[in-house]
């Protein structure tokens, strides 16, 4: 491989977001990130490196520096050690996996639609979906009691529906319990999982065991002391590659989850359509039996380089990219 000439480039993109996309404490007006392009002889690969504000530890500037160092090493034929910055490790490993043909082209474009809680809107969305009816609802933003009622109404109105819920650690145990109180016990097993209900893992475990509502780890997966293991009440782990790291790290997590009998859900960190379509390919490759959590494209006002099937958003090409470095 080393005999063929290598070239590489780093581009920067900025995509306008829909008004009102709020991440934790911050309104996200634009999504900013890097795309990298690697070429070796006839082979090439793209990768996206886009730290997510409020979720990633690294800034875009730090990611850019680390990317440059990584690509310069690759150009002189060195084996790149995975960067310590997860977004960089993910983007570089994707570009290499495209270049070497490791990442298959087939993709899983099913997505669990993100739903605001309006049963009519959800009904229309689900009717348009082939196969399994799974939707995702954010909870923990308003009153826990209101969340409980919304979930109950959705499950009652749509008998085929399974729900994924996400509280992003916003509840005390008491609030989580007041949510559960409003969900008919007969329907609780149609909650595929509730991501991170409580502020601590122990509280979340206690909640799952007391209520019979299965939970999933998301934030926890990125913590240093986290170990993938079967536990009572835990159904799944959520893997957001931009926040987790290299493709091989993601693969390792998927394998550990499957060995422990847990579902592994490949999920978005609000990447552009380039990164999202790669995540759909990763999901088809590593978790073919599980619908990935990729319904975030419509939070943006445009797609980038590669289109998501049937998306009506305009597709921007390389003209929208600013070349930062090329060699
Ligand atoms: O998991 C999904 O189905 C979509 C992605 C998603 O919900 C999220 C992506 C990025 C940040 C958060 O707002 C949110 C999450 O916490 O899981
Ligand atoms: Mg989550």
UniProtKB/TrEMBL annotation:
GO biological process: menaquinone biosynthetic process
The Mandelate racemase/muconate lactonizing enzyme C-terminal domain, residue ranges: 119-214
GO MF term list: magnesium ion binding; O-succinylbenzoate synthase activity
Pfam families registered for this protein in UniProt: MenC_N, MR_MLE_C
Stored CDD domains: OSBS
Gene3D superfamilies: Enolase-like C-terminal domain (3.20.20.120), Enolase-like, N-terminal domain (3.30.390.10)
Keyword Protein transport: no
Alphabetized SMART domains for the sequence: MR_MLE
InterPro entries: Enolase-like_C_sf, Enolase-like_N, Enolase_C-like, Mandelate_racemase_C, OSB_synthase_MenC1, OSBS_N
Pathway assigned to this chain's UniProt record: Quinol/quinone metabolism; 1,4-dihydroxy-2-naphthoate biosynthesis; 1,4-dihydroxy-2-naphthoate from chorismate: step 4/7; Quinol/quinone metabolism; menaquinone biosynthesis
Enzyme Commission number, as recorded: 4.2.1.113
Domain of life: Bacteria
Cofactors required: a divalent metal cation
Function noted in UniProt: Converts 2-succinyl-6-hydroxy-2,4-cyclohexadiene-1-carboxylate (SHCHC) to 2-succinylbenzoate (OSB).
Record-stated family: Belongs to the mandelate racemase/muconate lactonizing enzyme family. MenC type 1 subfamily.
NCBIfam families associated with the record: menC_gam_Gplu, PRK05105.1
Protein name: o-succinylbenzoate synthase
Annotated source species: Chania multitudinisentens RB-25
């Amino acid at each position: 491989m080393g005999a063929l000439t290598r070239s590489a480039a780093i581009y920067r993109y900025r995509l306008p977001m829909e008004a009102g996309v709020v991440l934790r404490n911050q309104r996200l007006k634009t999504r900013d990130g890097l795309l990298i392009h690697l070429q070796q002889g006839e082979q090439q690969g793209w990768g996206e490196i886009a730290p997510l504000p409020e979720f990633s530890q690294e800034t875009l500037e730090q990611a850019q520096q680390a990317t440059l160092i990584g690509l310069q090493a690759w150009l002189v034929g060195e084996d790149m050690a995975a960067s310590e910055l997860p977004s960089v490790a993910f983007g570089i490993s994707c570009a290499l996996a495209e270049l070497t043909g490791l990442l298959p082209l087939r993709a899983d474009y099913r997505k669990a639609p993100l739903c605001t809680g309006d049963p009519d809107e959800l009904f229309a969305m689900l009717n348009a979906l082939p196969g399994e009816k799974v939707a995702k609802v954010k909870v923990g933003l308003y009153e826990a009691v209101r969340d409980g009622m919304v979930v109950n109404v959705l499950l009652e109105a749509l008998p085929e529906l399974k729900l994924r819920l996400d509280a992003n650690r916003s509840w005390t145990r008491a609030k989580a319990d007041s949510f559960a109180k409003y969900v008919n016990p007969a329907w609780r097993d149609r909650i595929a999982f509730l991501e991170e209900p409580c502020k601590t893992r122990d509280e979340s475990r206690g909640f799952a065991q007391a209520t019979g509502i299965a939970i999933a780890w998301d934030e926890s997966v990125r913590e240093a002391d986290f170990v993938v293991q079967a536990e009572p009440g835990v159904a799944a782990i959520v893997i957001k590659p931009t926040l987790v790291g290299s493709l091989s790290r993601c693969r390792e997590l998927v394998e550990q989850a499957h060995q422990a009998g847990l579902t592994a859900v490949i999920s978005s960190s609000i990447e552009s359509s380039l990164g999202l379509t790669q995540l759909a390919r990763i999901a088809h490759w590593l978790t073919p039996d599980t619908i990935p959590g990729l319904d975030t494209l419509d939070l943006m006002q445009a797609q980038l380089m590669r289109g998501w099937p049937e998306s009506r958003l305009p597709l921007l090409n390389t003209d929208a990219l600013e070349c930062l470095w090329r060699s």
